[in-house]
Model the fold of this input.
Amino acid sequence: MEFAESAVNQYLSLDPEISSQLGDLEGRSIAIEITTPPVRLFCFPRAGGLSLQSIYEGEADCKISGSLAGILKMMRSENPAEILSSGEVSITGDSRLAQDFSDTLSRMDIDWEEFLSKLTGDFAAHRIGNAVRQGQSWLQDSLKAFSIDSTEYLQEESGILPTRIEIEKFIHDIDVLRDDTERLDARIQKLERTL
Done:
């Protein structure tokens, strides 16, 4: 457990603001029950990081339960209530504490370039940072171009997917058919009453 606590606190120290915000939650306890894989962990926020324990005799102020993927998704989500309402994660006890804890961790903003500069020097860290940003930009542009190209291919070249115009025409034709059917039904009912 000491190794895990040390690793978590090392990570949290990369964002000193978050590390200090955990001090606002000092004296509180959060139980995290991960269903898959089954793990139970008790977190005790303090200024500068977290204390972690696998066994706690007292009662935790709140308990967050769910799969590891669900809990991580909730902590990264802009709308954690959506994950809670889906049932992927449940909270018992002081839900405000769970929300504050989750919000604090989700606000982590690590300056990786600053961290790298301590290991490699400013010049190398800046070059690496630029390369990563260019790589991210290239990847986003490539994915966007691939999406456009594949949509064009599936619609225009292969004819597998209909174009927007074809979809709109199909919807219009369905509306016309529905209206015609309703008029025909009204005429039939009128004829039946007349006969």
Residues 162-195 form one domain. The chain has a mean pLDDT of 78.
